[in-house]
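Q: What structure does this chain adopt?
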Amino acid sequence: MKILLVEDEKTIAVTLTDDLEAAGHDVVHEADGTRGIARLREEAFDCVITDVRLPGADGLKVLAAAKEARPGTEVLVMTAFATVEHAVEAMRLGADDYIQKPFLNEQVVERVARIGKFRTLLDENRQLRAALDGEGGLPGVIGRSRRMEDVFRTVRTVAPTDASVLIQGESGTGKECIARALHQLSARRDAPFVALSCGALPDTLLETELFGHERGAFTDAGKLRRGRFELANRGTIFLDDIDDMPLQTQVKLLRVIQERSFERVGGEETLHVDIRVVSATKVPLIDLVKKGGFREDLYYRLNVVPIDLPPLREREGDVPLLTQHFVRKLGQGRSFTVKTDVLEAMSGYAWPGNVRELENHVAQAIAMAGGSTILKKEHLLPVDKTRRAALEPPTDLKSLREVLVQAEREHLRKVLRSVGGHRTKAASVLGISRKVLWEKLKDYGIE
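A:
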């Protein structure tokens, strides 16, 4: 942790600083309360250790300033004039601990260690909650695997632009979630996000859905109808299953992308739109181009930025995370438990239907749970109808703990390399104290 020590007694300040730094903390010392307050306004600290009686401003003012500058700062107040009044006032102002002089430095180091463990626990809980809610990656998207981190990086980079994006991935991988994240992270976030599945409509209706129609354009056109492009003006249009779009409609789509203009079916007025186009395909679109099933010029217009969304079987470590997310999402306020051995078995299943299939089985397990809070394996995993038994994972699978340990070890090495081995910077990036970092490096045998 980064600690501000405000103490005017030189002997205490020097020895306590040495012991705190030996325990892995960064310590900044000020001998005057006023200078301590000024330092708090200039820098952020995880913990403040302050005497009550100080030159300039007293320790209670330092405490108040620390909480005002950064409410999450932990404050340890120390004094040789310990009274009930001092303790009550310090705690009222938000002190996290109180120690009376004379004391052993080990006592302070131990209390700071407790504060550090508490902060680490809070940070880990926040990180887990962020990951479960998708905030650690993209809004509405769950995942921490290396493959998904690559996707997150691309989305965050391209989202602020108006470049067309082509998302390629198997059915059920969450392509619309990625499209929505692109929209939410763009300057168009306050404008409409309009989605259309090109494979869900017959060819005769697709053109009308895209461009709209005038009253009387055909037999059933009793009134004017605006199409998806018109509805998405100033926002984002998401064309899912673009590989199912007929060639005739592809010609008209190419014109919209090139000129940002079109006419409604049966109309003569040219409409102009300010729009971003995001499309998705469940098959490699370039293969369709080679077979003549998709226009090459349209392909290159759509594929300005490609995003390959991995299938769930290639997202190591994401199945338990997604499972817990869906349990919370679908649990309707009830608390359910999925045992570790079940999560391990789920991680070993290929999930051909990807995230959509996983969500379906969580919903089934919750529906079949009845009054139980333990979700059963036979409901969370598909059943082999021939053997009437849940599919078993391969025997070479690692345990969930082994996967997490390996991921943490690799991430520590990656961060250390990125900051040139500087531990203080690494600890800051990781959101943990230097002491916690030192302990993890020792546990994993990382030099």
